[in-house]
Write a structure and sequence with these properties.
Blueprint: E1 3-8, H1 12-23, E2 29-35, E3 39-41, H2 46-51, H3 56-59, E4 60-62, H4 63-69, E5 73-76, E6 79-83, E7 88-91, E8 96-98, E9 101-104, E10 120-121, H5 129-136, E11 142-145, H6 149-165, E12 172-174, H7 185-198, E13 201-203, E14 208-211, E15 215-218, E16 223-225, E17 228-231, H8 240-243, E18 254-256, E19 268-270, E20 275-277, H9 287-306, E21 321-326, E22 329-334, E23 337-341, H10 342-359
Parallel strand pairs: 1-2, 1-9, 2-5, 9-19, 10-17, 11-12, 11-17, 12-13, 18-20
Antiparallel strand pairs: 3-4, 6-7, 7-8, 14-15, 15-16, 21-22, 22-23
Helix pairs in contact: 1-4, 1-9
The protein binds flavin-adenine dinucleotide.
Length: about 350
C-alpha cells in the first residue's frame, strides 16, 4: 500500500521540495501540501513592492500550479494541530489528514498574541502582505515597530513610496534596541544617519507598552501619534506546536535535530523559521537559512522513504543581507563589511528575481 507524505506550509524549503518532485518522484508515496493560500509571497521582494517597484505577480509564486507540476495534491487550509502518536494533522475547519511522514515549513508570525485585538497589523503570515501594505502606505503617519532588518527596510520603503506619490506626513519607527542590533554598532550608526537624512523619526531603546487607535505609549512615557501601526518586532511562532504538546524552544518554535527531524518523532521534519535547531539555537529566523535548508530537507525526505542514511544541515557562518533603502539603492551587510549604493540594489534585485524564476 502506498504511504502518505504531508507537506505543511509553502515556505522556501518546501518550494525546493516541490521543485525536486517535478524532476523525480518518490515511489509509492502520495504527497499532499496543506497551506492557507495558493500563493507564496516572497519577503525578499516586500520592500520593492512597498515602494512601488514591483507588481503583485512579481512577489508571489503560484504554489497550486507548482504542486500540480510536481504531482502533489494542494489543499488550501491552515493547519492548527498535529497528533504525532495518531499520525494525524488537524486543520482550521477540523478536517483531519492522516500521514506516514509529515514536514513543516510554515514560517513565523510577527504580531504577538496579546496585540491581536489592537490596531497593530503585520505582514506575516506572508499572504496578508499585499492587503496590509496597501492599506498602511496610503496613510500620512505610518508607525513601524521593530528596528531589525525587516522593520528598517519597510520603513525606508514606505518613506520612498510617500515621496514618490506626494503623500504628506512622515514615517516613524520605534524599536526596543538600536537599529539593526545584530550588526556592528558602526553599521547601526550609518543606518541612523540615513534615517535622519530622510526625515524618518526613530525612537531607539523604547518598548511599546500600549497600542491605541491613534497613538502608542512607550515604556519611557512617550506618546507617539500614528495613522497605522505595522508590527515587525521579530519572529513569533505559530501556536500549532505548543497546542500539539511538542518539544519547542521558549518561543514555541519546534526543536529539530541537524537532520531536520523533530526531536522525539523521526517521521516528522521541519525547516525555516518555524523550527529551532538544537545544535544551532541562535540561528537567525531568516529566509537565507530557510532557502539553504531546502535541498537537505528534500534529500532527507527521499532518503527517509528509501530507508537510507540522512544528511545533516550545517549552517553557513555568515549571511549576506542587502536592504533596499529606497530609490533603487541597497544597504549591503556581510559580517564586518557594509556599504550603500546602487550596485548593491542591483545585486539584490538579481538575487531575488533569480530566486523567483527558479520556482515560477
Ligand atoms: C519585510 C520583511 C523582509 C524580509 N526580507 C528578508 C530578506 O531580504 N532576506 C531574508 O533572508 N529574510 C528576510 N525576511 C525574513 C524572511 O521573511 C523569513 O525568514 C522567511 O520568510 C522564512 O521562510 P520560511 O520558509 O520559514 O516561511 P515563509 O516564507 O513565511 O512561508 C511560510 C508558509 O507557510 C504557510 N503557512 C503559514 N501558517 C501555516 C499553517 N498554520 N498551516 C499551513 N501553512 C501555513 C504560509 O502561507 C507560507 O506559505 C524578511 C521578513 C520580513 C517581514
Amino acid at each position: 500500500m502506498s504511504k502518505r507524505l504531508l507537506l505543511v506550509g509553502a515556505g522556501h524549503s518546501h518550494l525546493e521540495v516541490l521543485r525536486r518532485l517535478t524532476e523525480e518522484r518518490i515511489d509509492d508515496v502520495d504527497i499532499c501540501m496543506v497551506s492557507p493560500s495558493r500563493y507564496q509571497y516572497y519577503s525578499g521582494m516586500f520592500s520593492g513592492y512597498t515602494e512601488g517597484l514591483y507588481a503583485t505577480e512579481d512577489t508571489r509564486i503560484d504554489v497550486r500550479q507548482l504542486a500540480r507540476q510536481a504531482r502533489v495534491h494542494f489543499i488550501e487550509k491552515r493547519a492548527v494541530e498535529v497528533r504525532p502518536k495518531q499520525h494525524k494533522l488537524i486543520c482550521h475547519d477540523r478536517s483531519v489528514y492522516p500521514f506516514d511522514v509529515i514536514s513543516f515549513d510554515i514560517g513565523s508570525r510577527s504580531l504577538p498574541e496579546h496585540l491581536e485585538e489592537t490596531q497593530a497589523r503585520t505582514i506575516k503570515p506572508n499572504y496578508t502582505f499585499i492587503e496590509e501594505i496597501e492599506r498602511i502606505r496610503e496613510t500620512t503617519h505610518p508607525l513601524v515597530v521593530g528596528g531589525g532588518a525587516a522593520g528598517t527596510e519597510i520603513a525606508l520603503s514606505l518613506h520612498a513610496y510617500k515621496e514618490k506619490q506626494g503623500i504628506p506626513g512622515n514615517v516613524r519607527l520605534v524599536t526596543s534596541e538600536r537599529l539593526l542590533p545584530d550588526t556592528p554598532s558602526w553599521v547601526s550608526k550609518r543606518m541612523e544617519s540615513l534615517f535622519e537624512k530622510k526625515g524618518i523619526q526613530v525612537w531607539e531603546n523604547e518598548k511599546v507598552e500600549e497600542v491605541d487607535e491613534d497613538y502608542i505609549m512607550t515604556g519611557k512615557g512617550n506618546k507617539i501619534r500614528h495613522t497605522g501601526v505595522l508590527w515587525l518586532g521579530g519572529a513569533v511562532s505559530d501556536p500549532i506546536f505548543k497546542h500539539s504538546d511538542l518539544d519547542t524552544d521558549d518561543k514555541g518554535f519546534a526543536h529539530v535535530e541537524s537532520t531536520l527531524q523533530f526531536k522525539d518523532y523521526p517521521f516528522m521534519f521541519g525547516a525555516g523559521d518555524c523550527v529551532t535547531m538544537l545544535d544551532h539555537p541562535k540561528l537567525p529566523k531568516s529566509g537565507v537559512y530557510a532557502v539553504r535548508q531546502g535541498p537537505v530537507l528534500a534529500d532527507n525526505l527521499y532518503h527517509f522513504f528509501k530507508k537510507e542514511p540522512l544528511q545533516e544541515y550545517d549552517p553557513q557562518k555568515q549571511a549576506l543581507y542587502i536592504l533596499s533603502v529606497g530609490h533603487q539603492k541597497g544597504f549591503l551587510i556581510y559580517g564586518p563589511v557594509s556599504f550603500c549604493n546602487r550596485r548593491a540594489w542591483k545585486m539584490k534585485n538579481k538575487i531575488d528575481r533569480d530566486f523567483m524564476k527558479k520556482y515560477k
